Amino acid sequence: MNNLSSVLSSLAYLALQVLFIRHWALFDMAFCLVYISVMLLLPFQLSSLWLMAVGFVLGFCVDIFYDTLGIHAACCVFLGYLRPYIANLIRPSGGYEIAMKPYLSIMGLRWFVTYTALLTAVHHFPLFLIEAWSFHLFGFTLLKALFSTLFTSVVIVIFQYLFYRNK
Predict the structure, then answer these.
(1) Composition of the chain by helix, strand, coil, percent to 5
(2) Number of separate domains in the chain
(3) What is the maximal distance between C-alpha atoms in the chain?
(4) Domain range enclosing 92
(5) What is the pLDDT of residue 127?
(6) What radius of gyration do the chain's Cα atoms show?
(7) Alpha carbon distance 19, 14 (integer Å)
């Protein structure tokens, strides 16, 4: 049942992204890409190879709907590669349990916000730099990536409070 709920949750995030959240933008500077929650909420026990495979499929699905020629797939694969290293970097003193999932209700607010912000930045900065395809407006692109990282991170934390409560 747990795997089924994870798959359904992943499909819900993907559908939510491509149908509704796609149009969320703040002043054309901050964009919400909440679909990366699928990558962030996978169990810690998954290897980089599995994370990159999931990232490719997830990013490819988003690329189909956004018509972005593989940019989201590439950034999700990059996110899948770096997630274990960043998770080890911010590992709590007791470490992680084998099948532990990185939910706010389990890990705590401070850890979850740090984890979410770092991994969202890992995804967003390359995404917006590749999308710009130029260093002509480098400062503007970095600001767009920073504001989008903040916007997406806040929305992911809000979704955690709304949908992933302690049972």
Answers:
(1) 70, 0, 25
(2) 1
(3) 50
(4) 2-163
(5) 94
(6) 15
(7) 8
